[in-house]
Amino acid sequence: MNPRRIAVSVAIGAVLGVFCIIGVGLRLFAGAYLENLLYLVGVWYNRVLMGLVIGLADGVMIVDKSNRKSTTNAVLRGLLLGITVSVAVFLSDAYQDLMSLVAGFAYGVIIDVVATATDRS
């Protein structure tokens, strides 16, 4: 377990979650943030949780098993974990927000690539 990687991943997830709140709020709720605060906090929390899951997945090697800092591995791992976390929420979401689902795929890649690139170990 790498505490620095976890912290970086969670922080990136939290920042990307703010972008999700803005996007979802504008797209689904026409800027009515307060009336939908619980839903929007859930969207943000999903991205934080995605960061935590990706932060904990440091040792998961999909390709290039000899290089722990492989960008290819980070992209594939981030994509798979982004899909997993995002689909879990999408399937239980009454709004079935396809844009948030796809953003989750991209955010998984972003989180993992940045966390892997900033890893000092």
SSE blueprint and pairings:
Elements lengths: L2 H27 L7 H20 L14 H21 L6 H20 L4
Helix pairs in contact: 1-2, 1-4, 2-3, 2-4, 3-4
Mean pLDDT: 93
Estimated helix fraction: over 70%
The number of helical segments is: 4
Low-confidence stretches: none
The helix/strand order is HHHH
- Write down the Rg: 15 Å
Provide the β-strand percentage band. under 5%
Q: What's the end-to-end separation, in Å?
A: 11 Å
Tell me what the structure shows.
The protein has 121 residues and is mainly alpha-helical. It has one domain. Helix content is 73%, strand content 0%. It has helices at residues 3-29, 37-56, 71-91, 98-117. Helix 1 runs antiparallel to helix 4, helix 2 runs antiparallel to helix 3 (71-91) and helix 3 (71-91) packs antiparallel against helix 4 (98-117). The protein starts with a helix and ends with a helix.
Sum up the structure in keywords.
mainly alpha, 4 helices, 121 residues, 73% helix
In short:
This protein has 121 residues and is an all-alpha fold. The protein has one domain (3-117). Helices cover 73% and strands 0% of the residues.
